[in-house]
Amino acid sequence: MKITNRFNLPEPFVAAVTADDYVRGDANYTTTELITPTRILSLRKQHDADLVEDASERVWAMQGQMRHLVLERIAKADPSRYLVEQRFDAVMPGGIKISGQIDLFDFKDGTLYDWKETSVWKFLIGNTKEWEQQANINLFLLRNNGLTVHGLKNIAILKDWKIREARIAKLSKGKKDYPPCAIHVMDMPMWSMGEAQAFIMERVKTHEENMAKPPVCTKKERWQRDATFAVMHRDKKRAIKLCDNRDMAEAVMMEAMKRARPGEASRFYIEERGAEPVRCLDFCAVQIYCDFGTEAEKKWREKHEKSEGSE
Fold first, then answer.
1. Rama region for 100: left / alpha / beta (φ>0; ψ in -120 to 50; rest)
2. Is residue 222 part of a domain?
3. Range of the structural domain that residue 236 is part of
4. Within a domain: residue 76?
5. Looking at the whole model, is its pTM more than 0.85?
6. Rounded CA gap, 224 and 207, in Å?
7. pLDDT tens-digit profile of 176-226?
8. Distances (CA, A) of 24 to 28, 103, 277
9. CA 160, CA 119: separation in Å to the nearest integer?
10. Got the DSSP string for 154-195?
11. Structural domain count of the chain
């Protein structure tokens, strides 16, 4: 991957975000690759040398690497208790080798920890299935190497958490789900060895069979939510209410029209908000090589250019 510096950032910063001591090993698939959508993995392999990322876009990756220093401190504090950043391998039926690097294993209570930096948005929608899959592949690897694990925990660091939003949430009925602090500890479900092996073999099969001609990522893999219907008032920028379907939106609009002042009823309307593939638009490094991704980007631009032109 090539690193650019479009904003002429200082060289020490560019050097910091460019440095990466990650060692993948010689496995056919790593834990991360197993849970990665086949199309993304395939396009990465095809275009790895051509991928371009700006230094400004690697700030979160750098913060993720800083986790290494924290884990080192934990290990030094009690090396007999904590096992950190160690890679484990396993050879699956058919000779496929997989590997995964854990964050931290606590011998005292048998807990396997994983650190995650995520957004409040992802936390609120509960989009953590990939975390569960990753945790259980690593659990499989530890068990396969003779370690006894009693629990899986993810420590989620909410990088865009705001104390003001949390304070408002205490008073607001509509925002009760907003996290009260920037750190959230999540217990992950533990799979049996059989369940984990079946999942791993299914992912291997999917990758092996589709790598040459990978299908478009599923809606879940694109982090794409269903379309919503917003009840709007022409004098207000924000929606009165967001609804999952048009029937519900029409019912809400009719109720609002009944309560409106004389002459105001005609100013209510319903705005359909199409679902956007969030991963494709903002988080996919191979978007420019994906026909679905480039088309999604094109539609997004056309939509927003049109809305700006109509203002």
1. beta
2. no
3. 228-309
4. yes
5. no
6. 22
7. 678 899 999 999 999 999 999 999 999 999 999 999 999 999 998 998 877
8. 10, 15, 29
9. 6
10. EEEEETT--HHHHHHHHH-GGGTTS-SSSEEEEEEPPPPHHH
11. 2
